[in-house]
Amino acid sequence: MFWNPKIECMPADQLRQLQYRELKRLVNNLYSFNKFYRDHMKAQNVTPLDINSIEDITKLPFMYKQDLRDNYPDKMFTVPKNEIVRYHVSSGTSGKPTLVAYTRNDLDYWTEALCRSFTAGGLGPDDTIQISYGYGLFTGGLGAHYGAERVGATVLPSGTGNTERQLEMMKDLGVTAIACTPSYLIHLDTTAKKLGYDWKRDMVLKKAFLGAEPWSEPMRTRIQNDLGIKAYDLYGTSEQAGPMFSECEYQKGVHVWGDIMYVEILDRETGEPLEPGNEGEMAVTMLKKEAMPMIRYRTRDITTLYTDTCECGRTSPRLARITGRCDDMLVIRGINVFPSQVEYTLLQIPEVGDQYMIIVTRDGDLDKMVLQVEIRPEAFSDKVEDMIALRAHIESQLKKYLNIAVQVELKAPGELPRFDGKASRVIDKRKI
Amino acid sequence: MNEYIITQLSIFVNNVPGKLAAVAKTLKDCNVNMKACNLAESTEFGILRAIVEDPDQSCEKLQAKGLIVRKTQLIGIKITDVPGSLYGPAKALGDGGINIEYGYAFTGKKVEGLFIRVDDPEKAITVLQQAGIALIRAAEI
Question: I want to staple B36 with a disulfide (CB 3.0 to 4.6 A). Which of A356, A402, A418, B51 is the partner?
């Protein structure tokens, strides 16, 4: 099944022509209306006249997450404020969020991308899909919601939490598909078994679109076998719009719709583009974006791009699983956590020093974050209960700033490793 | 200072194998002699509480070696080696509205008893003395 076969199966040379035309239009527009990007281009001695093929994209300057923060909230906008119809906000470092703005067309292309993706995964009018992503400032809930509605599926906007009720609705309403984080689906599975549900007897779930956190092939195998469903990798970050791209029934990587997003894989050291099939850092150019530019945006995600035609007949390039990130941003239970946020929080607590270590593990189904901190000598008490109260205080402050539960371990000054130069304060022990 | 106030050193110890040995090595290197001690533990840290000879000087030496050390005031109750000897002091403190945070036993050459940590040691001393309970002097340890 195809949603837009003309684009999805377009021959490669035609697609490159289309991408070139989109890029040319985009760069012309940005050069005229976006001071940030015009200054960027001028600094690199490039004008729209230098763009004469899609390959010329490498002449354009990169964009980084820091650019979004530096231009917060509205200095990056390319359209007048009255053309912006929605904001989403993702958690950022030092309490500074990243704002993403959308025009009506931006929302339409986001939905269009999801329609193609959901259709490729077999979602259609006969399905009932439970959207168990967070609704609100997070892009997951609303993004998946509009895509699923547009393909004609019946949408159950359940959001996150209240797992027992979600299972009850899943059973009563005959839910056939779900969109959520992989760890939440595993949590649903665990809870279902505890409550005596049998996936084959009580449920008619057939497919899951899983994203917003890293997961792996072994997790896919486990989910598919345990629940008797197909589990598809759903990819997309808020900078791109939100969840956008997913897999077809052959599950051979995430299909990227080339008219919407142009993908480059870069050498991690040099930033030079690599040939398809090589692993490197993904940079994306959002060819249709209106409200905010996203040109050669360094995602920090490490992956591989495949350009051969898929078994499903689609010619669109495909992304392998994200195998890591260039920086030390952590995704814990679907929430972005930056070590700098942890640092910022600790600075507000006089009883602790500035050395810390973050250890992430997977405790059963859920990610667990342990934070080791050094206490200051004057905060030490001979009473265990005072120390436990201090620990609880640090935990509640972290919960407030990071929005996730963190287990704190108190250490003596000098116990934690010191770093010369770049600190590596994160140990990620998750086997995913 | 009140002769019945006993100074305890509390030392922070990370709860991992070998850490107590490291602290004990420091005590040895600083020539600190413990008369009584107690270990309290949480999941990731422990607290070594010790009554030592010359607590002020010992504390300085240990801090100079990088240990987290805090001085705390305890009181010592004389306990005799017969059934029921804890009852009198415990009841007196209870009647006086004084809560015992923690305590540990001590058997010395001249005296034996129980060291206890209370929020207001001066008041506890008064309460116990009024009830006729014998207390350990710092000099007797």
Answer: B51
Say if the Cβ atoms of A412 and B47 lie within 8 Å.
no
pLDDT in tens, A353-368: 767 899 999 888 788 9
Q: How many CB pairs (< 8 A) connect A and B?
A: 50
Structure confidence by residue, pLDDT tens digits, B47-58: 999 999 999 999
Give contacts of B67 with chain A, Cβ < 8 Å: 412
Contact call for B10 and A380, based on CB within 8 A: yes
Q: Is the pLDDT of residue B110 over 90?
A: no
pTM value is 0.64
Mean pLDDT of B130-140: 93
Residues of chain A neighbouring B70 (CB-CB closer than 8 A): 377, 380-382
pLDDT band at A421 (very low <50, low <70, confident <90, very high): very low
For B7-72, CATH number?
3.30.2130.10
Predicted interface score ipTM higher than 0.90: no
Judged by CB atoms closer than 8 Å, whether chains meet at A381 and B49 is answered as no
- CATH 3.30.2130.10, domain B73-140, yes or no: yes
Count the neighbouring beta carbons within 10 Å of the beta carbon of residue B57: 13
Nearest to A381 among B41, B44, B70 (CB): B70
